Amino acid sequence: MKVERFAGRTPELKLEEYFVGRIKGSGLFEDRFGTVRRTFTFTMDGRMEGNTLILKEDFLYDDGERKERVWRLTRSGAGTWEGRADDVVGIGLGRGAGNAFQLTYVLKLPVSGSEWEVRFDDWLFRLDDETVLNRANVYRWGVWIGQVITTMRKLPEG
Fold it and tell me: N or C, fewer C-beta in 10 Å, the chain?
């Protein structure tokens, strides 16, 4: 898919608007055989600092594990962003158009006492004023190992 295909679709997904404030969501990881391996809930708190969107994500997994990630997404051009987080290798690259946004990055993922570097190809789609659907294909050594699917809702301010 090419993100340009979504130009003009509404409601528009503007990161600096949708992700400022509090978001609540849930999701799952499904392996390449169709087995749901893990489910989770999360909250995100976002704020703008100059040209950078700071997103603090707090995850709670079905096995009780908790994980925090802080993204720093900086606008790098018209519709383009660069993303950084402590467990991201290098820089994530993002592009948006219309109601869609794609972010690709390599994540350091702890697995059974070791650390894997996996590539994420994240696609976010704004479905209505409050709801974003996210689908991320996950690859290791260029081989598709599964997908993460999440839904998130922007909470009212106040």
Answer: C
